[in-house]
Design a protein that fits this description.
Radius of gyration: 34 Å
Helix content: 40-55%
Oligomer: single chain
Mean pLDDT: 85
């Protein structure tokens, strides 16, 4: 595909003017929306009143920088300026954070940086000059340091205050709406992106580009549906005309036509994305459920040889069912705009499902709605309204707005919402429900909306479980069971796909010893359970407690999983009757009453429980047994709490650990970002203690936390899973697949996806990490995907998104620089150094709280300063935990130093006896004790003299 048109393409002037005219109709709606918001207008008026004063102030600092380049002085002045109220308050972050990072990154070329900066701060006189200045500053900063995307923001901010030319400020994300709509080139450099941005702002707002900048920035901060531009039909019409020149197998008549078709398709897709994003919240409120947006392809088919599309549609999937998921859609073509409900793409069901749905809806089509017929995917104009008559194909019911009825007005959002409310009653019909929904528990319905949003549901892993059920169901059909496949049967009952049955060692042993006759009996039992005549309860009882001695007894949970796979319309994927996640627990969470167990057989109780639970859940999530169970489990977990919700456990942990609360909040944010962090530093700096205490603050339930320690012999099989020997019933040695701590924790996290599960890995760098993690390295970064692991070749394994890792790393054992690069990229690393950051002064704070000898902290600090100089780095300092001992007297101090600290220093200074002699306890006291005592006395005197409440 050729690149779409860019502003530097001189041959495209005519097309550029055509596009600008079309785009302006959409931009005018944007401006109309933003300028109709009193809050925005009032804010702009207040900012404008301060703009001149702020401009004058900054110009003085810029001129000083140009005359006598001093970047550190300029950064300080810019920080003070950016903190003042006015239209440039966002500059404060650039000055406080980004610019100092630039200085630190280019400390070796500071003079060159200052010279270049002094030149590029001069306001450019042309677009080319602006682009050159941005590229020049980027070049001197270089890669591998501060974000270069901030260069256009920084320079455009300075240029905007000069009063020379018309230079809008490109704030971070400020051009996103333009780029999404396909109005800017793709794969642009930062300089090219700014040039495109300026050109668009000047074209849309000739009286002042800053106005267009404010409009697009405002919509970026507060997305809103502004309507379809009045010129959009012309865009679709041109695309349709180009589509008609496309010949299957040959393509477009020339490269210019293909490039133009690609550019228009990108614009159509951009409009679809912006409409989907801006209407999302409004439609979620209207429907009361969690919606999922889909992305639109630029071509009519998933092939690089297909024609580019000539229409644009925004789609929101409703919660998925075991069949196709119905979807809300706003679809624009060259003829008009359709708004309505589609039956959903379900290749397994085929045309028969659509025909059945269409026929049913013809009999009960609500007033004000009509069928909209979909032409072939490659047709240039696919939609045709057909009134109350269904004409075949995918079912699309809604309202049709011929052009220009739906364009050029912001009020079209109300028409979309009104149509969505009208089609909502048809959702259950399109899902395939045989009867109207009745008996919905209103409290559960409210909880369901929270579940869909918070969990969220459905996730990719949920879809995987549903697909696995379909695959398994094919192997349990009567014809498939006639050629019984024991390997597939074992995979069904032993794996976690479509729910786990737990452990069943006796059944596993029986299966391993089956001969041909036993295999035949097992196939006959399973066939009878799933497809036999008579009552389900009697068949369940027959397979879990068979009469014949040569028949294999199935575990109760195994029997129920087989039924849930083969008959999902009746049985839910929850298999145990009792236990933490069993049917009894779910019934209590849902308010379902079950009969007493002693009065019924196990099979009868399972059937009754299945029917009653399904009766409660089916109206909420029709035809979605997996979703029903996930909702019930979520409801069950929601009722479990081990701590008063009014307590702030992170703040309590910070107080216990004597660190700033914001430090722990930052660790929490880092965990949410990458899901895994590593605390690294010298031994004895409290890394493991803090990891465990912080984990307890995030997850008070000890059953949802685990601690493992790595060592040089730790293997993949130890950490994740592997085969382990055991004796079978006959005393023979056999091997079984045994889960390690990671597999067990992942299984628990997947079963309870709304609460965090945390694994602390102590001394993580002592093991051979690539060997221990294996293919799991991939999953640390790609949590939403699964991989086939060494011992699960038939079942994908996925790390749940609610499983977090906190590792600790002793840098005296192995430098952080030696850690495998792939692993390092997947973790956030937090230093625990005694002389800086949150650990600085920690020993003094602890000794003060415990009424200990605070002066000892001064001695340790001074020794650490000496060690940093002698050993040329911070990684071999003395950790504070050596001295966090209550009742610390002189004898205890001497003992700790002699047997704990001095041997550590001796290892680092081996062979340097003259230097080592200066680190005995006696020598250290002689050198530092007096000064440490003096500092402690001065600090106490200062505290005593301070006014109360200061």
């Amino acid at each position: 595909m050729q690149a779409p048109m860019t502003w530097s393409d001189e041959a495209a002037d005519g097309q550029r003017e055509t596009d600008l005219g079309r785009w302006r109709s959409t931009y005018d709606l944007m401006a109309e929306h933003v300028e109709a918001d009193p809050a925005f207008v009032a804010s702009w008026q207040q900012l404008d009143a301060l703009a001149h004063a702020r401009d004058v102030e900054l110009r003085a600092d810029v001129e000083a920088m140009i005359r006598r380049p001093d970047i550190e002085r300029f950064a300080e002045a810019l920080a003070q300026w950016g903190a003042r109220p006015g239209p440039y308050v966002g500059a404060g972050a650039l000055a406080r954070h980004w610019l100092p990072r630039v200085v630190a990154h280019r400390e070796d070329r500071l003079g060159e940086l200052e010279d270049v900066l002094a030149k590029v701060l001069v306001t450019p006189t042309s677009l080319d000059e602006a682009g050159t200045s941005i590229a020049r500053l980027e070049d001197v900063i270089g890669s591998g340091g501060p974000d270069l995307a901030r260069v256009p923001t920084f320079l455009s901010l300075v240029w905007a205050t000069s009063g020379q030319g018309d230079w809008p400020v490109l704030w971070p994300g400020g051009a996103d709406a333009f780029a999404t709509l396909g109005w800017m080139g793709r794969h642009l450099t930062h300089a090219e992106r700014y040039v495109d941005f300026v050109t668009l702002c000047r074209a849309f707002s000739p009286a002042g580009a800053y106005r267009a900048q404010r409009v697009v920035t405002a919509l970026g901060e507060k997305p809103a549906f502004v309507g379809f531009g009045a010129a959009l039909p012309a865009l679709a019409t041109e695309s349709t005309q180009l589509h008609r020149t496309f010949e299957q197998g040959v393509g477009y008549p020339d490269g210019e036509s293909e490039a133009r078709a690609a550019s228009l398709a990108l614009q159509l897709r951009g409009h679809a994305a912006l409409v989907a994003r801006s209407l999302h919240e409004q439609l979620e409120r209207a429907t009361g459920v969690k919606l999922a947006e889909t992305s639109l392809q630029t071509r009519t088919e998933a092939s690089s040889r297909a024609a580019y599309r000539s229409d644009s549609h925004s789609t929101w999937l409703l919660p998925a069912s075991s069949g196709g998921a119905p979807a809300l859609r706003v679809w624009m073509t060259s003829s008009g705009i359709a708004v309505g409900l589609m039956s959903g793409w379900d290749p397994a069901a085929g045309a028969e499902r659509h025909e059945e749905l269409g026929s049913r809806l013809e009999q009960n089509l609500p007033a004000g709605l009509e069928f909209i017929h979909l032409g072939p995917a490659g047709a240039p104009d696919r939609l045709t309204p057909t009134g109350a008559s269904y004409e075949g194909g995918e079912v699309f019911v809604g309202r049709w707005f011929p052009h220009p009825d739906g364009v050029g007005r912001r009020s079209f959002a109300a028409d979309v919402e009104d149509t969505v409310r009208r089609v909502l009653p048809l959702v259950d019909t399109m899902r395939g429900s045989d009867a109207p929904v009745e008996g919905i528990d209103e409290e559960l319905a409210i909880a369901l909306r929270t579940f869909l949003a918070d969990r969220p549901y459905p996730a990719e892993r949920d879809q995987w479980h549903v697909e696995q059920r379909r695959t398994f169901a094919a192997s349990l059909e009567p014809e498939a069971l006639a050629a019984f496949d024991l390997a597939t049967f074992k995979r069904i009952i032993a794996g976690g796909a479509y729910g786990s049955t737990g452990t069943h060692s006796v059944l596993d042993a029986r299966l391993a010893a089956l001969d041909a006759r036993g295999l035949e009996n097992l196939a006959r039992s399973v066939t009878h359970l799933l497809w036999g005549e008579g009552d389900d309860a009697d068949r369940i009882d027959a397979v879990i407690d068979p009469e014949g001695a040569d028949e294999v007894a199935l575990d109760e949970a195994v029997a129920m999983k087989l039924l849930a796979i083969a008959h999902p319309h009746r049985y839910l994927p929850v298999y145990a009757m009792t236990g933490r996640d069993g049917k009894v627990a779910l019934a209590q969470a849902l308010g379902v009453v079950l009969p007493r167990r002693r009065e019924l057989s196990r099979g009868r109780l399972q059937v009754i429980a299945a029917d009653r639970l399904r009766g409660k859940l089916e109206p909420l999530l029709p035809n979605d047994p997996w979703g029903q169970v996930q909702f019930a489990l979520w409801l069950l977990r929601k009722g479990e709490t081990s701590v008063d919700p009014e307590r702030d456990l992170v703040a309590e942990a910070a107080a216990d650990l004597l660190v700033d609360e914001e430090f722990l909040r930052e660790i929490d944010e880092l965990l949410q970002d990458k899901k895994q962090v590593i605390f690294y530093g010298p031994p004895g700096t409290g890394k493991t203690f803090m990891a465990q205490r912080f984990a307890a603050a995030l997850q008070p339930d000890p059953t949802k936390r685990a601690v493992v320690q790595f060592h040089p012999s730790t293997s993949y099989e130890d950490f994740f899973e592997g085969f382990r020997p055991r004796l079978d019933a006959a005393g023979a040695m056999v091997y079984e697949l045994r889960k390690g701590p990671l597999a067990l924790m992942a299984e628990a996290a997947e079963a309870d996806p709304t609460t965090p599960h945390i694994m602390v890995i102590d001394e993580i760098n002592r093991a051979n990490l690539p060997r221990v993690f294996g293919e799991l390295l991939f999953l640390l970064e790609y949590r939403s995907q699964s991989v086939m692991t060494s011992y699960r070749p038939d079942e994908g394994f996925q790390l749940p998104s609610n499983l977090y890792f906190i590792g600790t790393m002793n840098t005296a054992d192995r430098s952080i620089a030696l850690v495998d690069a792939a692993l390092r990229r997947r973790f956030h690393f937090l230093p625990f150094m005694p002389h800086e950051g949150p650990m600085e002064g920690l020993l003094a704070r602890w000794l003060e709280r415990e009424n200990g000898p605070v002066w000892v902290a001064g001695v340790v600090d001074r020794v650490n300063e000496e060690l940093r100089q002698i050993l040329r780095g911070p990684h071999l300092q003395i950790g504070h935990s050596h001295f966090m001992v209550r009742d610390l007297d002189d004898a205890a101090l001497a003992r700790i130093w002699k047997y704990g600290v001095y041997p550590f220093i001796e290892d680092q200074l081996y062979g340097r006896e003259d230097v080592l002699a200066t680190f005995t306890w006696e020598a250290v006291l002689e050198r530092h004790a007096q000064a440490a005592h003096a500092d402690d006395d001065a600090a106490r005197a200062t505290n005593d003299a301070a006014p109360e409440g200061s």
